[in-house]
Amino acid sequence: MSSPDFVVCLECETPCYVFEWEGGKLTEAQCTACGNDDTDQFALPEELEELDSH
Length: 54
Fold this sequence. Notes:
Strand content: 25-35%
Structural class: alpha+beta
Radius of gyration: 10 Å
Largest sheet: 3 strands, antiparallel
């Protein structure tokens, strides 16, 4: 998978455009809105849509 345009912070649902993507996965991210930097707390936009539909 190529790098996505953005990832979404699951803490505050803010799109984040500054992140590192290597080997098809998120390796580093920083939410400028809430300060979250836990890569497990970010999702791809498609993943967020799936979570919202459940």
